[in-house]
């Protein structure tokens, strides 16, 4: 992967290639004869040349390549460092909490934040030890940020954020800052109420130490959800067998898009594990659209993450045939047992729908070029199809099509779905405020350089200003912020994608989640183009209007409002 990235970096500074493309784009007659997607791909290639410093003299071009190589090395080193455990002499901690950590002689190894542990002392110890500053990791982060800034300025951008946001929905850091500031302002009072509720809950549990701290937020928000709505995942799992959920997806895609999923036999040596299943994606009139390999089950040494990735992108071949896309959906589901099929928790079911949203983006993209196939589009648009699927997964009319108790066949009661959906709104403002804090920190780190303060001082200042819970001395959370590698200056994308998905859901599918006309519009305006069309134009085509920053913010805030019917029913 590293050598391939380096090879691409060299191609992006190949003067002959660039001059050939530049001659083509300068010829008005030729350009006017190109279809819109071909023109966009040509412009994207030219953009790649320009951000790599093709316009520079030879010495500066070499410097740009060397900076790219160094940035790649630093990214790998930072990612490795971000996941390493920290060790501490076990006698520093009370003996009764030792069992929560891995013991190595006289040391305890802390490999995470233990955010779900009910013991306040364990969470506090894990937070302070796991986030303890590491001089080497600090040095890597500082060099990574400085190198990115140097590369951006070398090729003509004010900051790395300006370079990274070119071509996205947001387009520039100023829009991102405006979006985050307006969202933060709208969230402020709601977040304060959430923190007050968490503090009250902590006071009940731990009256001697009731001040709300950063290690409390994930735990007490979960406690509040469970207490207020009595949500026990174990009550839901029997209704969400893997087979039922796949049938639900098949039914939804059939009604919305005219698409069916068929299991296909794999050939010997075709898959990397015997429990990987192959699905053919078939349209009712167009036939086979592509293949999805479903790598759904836990196994030793498998990366513990849910994701979608492309094996082969779709493209128009020279002989006129279309190269069908091939993708993988990877989850970490439990295996079936002798007495029960694989049962999914509500969170697992939602993740399955989310990842299948990415897969459909890949399957339904019909681009001429592999460069812009499926999910190969700007980061702040790429999550829209997957997050939109979460709205379907939380709608009773959709869930009622497939959620059946695996033993009795009884459908999942409507009030259980409503309570589950409403439970997600408990402390959701504080959760969103935390995401705003992460996104704001990312923007500052990739903004104007040299940074006015150290990365830790910036963290402290931003956390207290944007998030609201106090910074904990001698911690450096930013050194564990692995998203700085893959989402540098683009962490806001999660929030902006969610805003667009929310608007699409409310305007196009909330009234009827099986509306075929809207499904066809969704395919035509958003999924078919991959990255072959400007993202904001795809959103405009779907919504029939151009959304403003205020529209994005309003969409996110309205998602936090309680459903009146459920509220009255529960009262």
Automatic annotation (TrEMBL):
Q: Which GO terms describe its biological process?
A: peptide metabolic process; protein processing involved in protein targeting to mitochondrion
Q: What is its main location?
A: mitochondrion
- Return the cofactor note field: Binds 1 zinc ion.
Residue ranges of the Peptidase M3A/M3B catalytic domain?
114-555
Which EC number(s) are documented for this chain? 3.4.24.59
Q: Which GO terms describe its cellular component?
A: mitochondrial matrix
Keywords of the record: Acetylation, Calcium, Cobalt, Hydrolase, Iron, Magnesium, Manganese, Metal-binding, Metalloprotease, Mitochondrion, Protease, Transit peptide, Zinc
Which compartments does it reside in?
Mitochondrion matrix
Q: Which SUPFAM superfamilies match?
A: Metalloproteases ('zincins'), catalytic domain
Mention one GO molecular function.
metalloendopeptidase activity
Q: Which Pfam families does the entry mention?
A: Peptidase_M3
Q: Which cofactor does it need?
A: Zn(2+)
Q: Which InterPro entries match?
A: M3A_MIP (IPR033851), MetalloPept_cat_dom_sf (IPR024079), Neurolysin/TOP_dom2 (IPR024077), Pept_M3A_M3B (IPR045090), Pept_M3A_M3B_dom (IPR001567)
- Give the reaction(s) catalysed: Release of an N-terminal octapeptide as second stage of processing of some proteins imported into the mitochondrion
State the function annotated in the UniProt record: Cleaves proteins, imported into the mitochondrion, to their mature size.
Give the family per the record: Belongs to the peptidase M3 family.
SUBUNIT field:
Monomer.
Q: Which PANTHER family does the record match to this protein?
A: MITOCHONDRIAL INTERMEDIATE PEPTIDASE, PROTEASE M3 THIMET OLIGOPEPTIDASE-RELATED
Protein name as annotated: Mitochondrial intermediate peptidase
| Source taxonomy | Eukaryota, Metazoa, Chordata, Craniata, Vertebrata
């Amino acid at each position: 992967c590293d050598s391939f990235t380096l090879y691409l970096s060299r191609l992006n500074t190949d003067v002959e290639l660039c001059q050939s493309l530049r001659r083509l784009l300068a010829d008005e007659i030729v350009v006017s004869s190109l279809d819109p997607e071909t023109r966009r791909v040509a412009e994207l290639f030219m953009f790649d040349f320009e951000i790599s410093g093709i316009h520079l003299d030879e010495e500066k071009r070499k410097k740009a390549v060397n900076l790219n190589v160094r940035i790649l090395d630093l990214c790998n080193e930072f990612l490795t460092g971000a996941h390493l455990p920290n060790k501490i002499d076990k006698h520093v901690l009370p003996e009764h909490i030792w069992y929560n950590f891995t013991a190595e002689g006289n040391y305890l190894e802390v490999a995470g934040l233990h955010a779900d542990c009910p013991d306040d002392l364990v969470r506090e110890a894990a937070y302070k030890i796991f986030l303890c500053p590491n001089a080497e990791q600090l040095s890597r982060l500082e060099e990574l940020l400085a190198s990115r800034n140097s590369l951006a300025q070398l090729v003509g951008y004010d900051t790395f954020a300006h370079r990274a946001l070119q071509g996205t929905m947001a387009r520039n850091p100023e829009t991102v800052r405006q979006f985050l500031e307006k969202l933060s302002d709208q969230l402020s009072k709601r977040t304060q109420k959430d923190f007050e509720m968490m503090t009250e809950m902590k006071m009940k549990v731990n009256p001697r130490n009731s001040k709300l701290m950063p290690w409390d937020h994930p735990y007490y928000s979960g406690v509040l959800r469970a207490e207020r709505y009595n949500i026990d995942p174990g009550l839901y799992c029997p209704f969400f067998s893997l087979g039922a959920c796949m049938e639900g997806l098949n039914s939804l895609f059939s009604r919305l898009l005219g698409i069916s999923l068929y299991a296909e036999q794999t050939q010997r040596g075709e898959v990397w594990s015997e429990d990987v299943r192959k699905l053919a994606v078939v349209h009712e009139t167009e036939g086979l659209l592509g293949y999805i390999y479903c790598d759904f089950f836990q196994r030793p040494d498998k990366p513990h993450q849910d994701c979608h990735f492309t094996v082969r992108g779709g493209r128009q071949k020279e002989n006129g045939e279309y190269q069908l896309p091939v993708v993988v959906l990877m989850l970490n589901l439990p295996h079936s047992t002798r007495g029960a099929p694989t049962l999914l928790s509500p969170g697992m079911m939602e993740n399955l729908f989310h990842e299948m949203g990415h897969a459909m983006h890949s399957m339904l993209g019909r681009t001429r070029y592999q460069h812009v196939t499926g999910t190969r589009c700007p980061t702040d648009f790429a999550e829209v199809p997957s997050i939109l699927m979460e709205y379907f997964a939380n709608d009773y009319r959709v869930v009622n099509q497939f959620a059946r108790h695996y033993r009795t066949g009884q459908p999942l009661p409507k009030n259980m779905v409503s309570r589950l959906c409403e439970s997600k709104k408990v402390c959701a403002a504080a959760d969103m405020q935390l995401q705003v804090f992460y996104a704001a920190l990312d923007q500052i780190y990739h903004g104007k350089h040299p940074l006015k303060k150290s990365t830790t001082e910036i963290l402290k200042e931003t956390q207290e200003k944007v998030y609201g819970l106090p910074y904990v001395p001698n911690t450096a959370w930013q050194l564990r912020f692995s998203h700085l590698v893959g989402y540098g200056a683009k962490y806001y994308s999660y929030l902006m994608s969610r805003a667009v998905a929310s608007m699409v859901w409310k305007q196009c599918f909330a009234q009827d989640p099986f509306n075929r006309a809207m499904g066809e519009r969704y395919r035509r305006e958003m999924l078919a183009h991959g990255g072959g069309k400007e993202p904001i134009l795809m959103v405009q085509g779907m919504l029939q209007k151009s959304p403003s920053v205020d529209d994005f913010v309003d969409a996110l805030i309205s998602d936090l409002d309680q459903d009146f019917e459920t509220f009255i029913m529960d009262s």
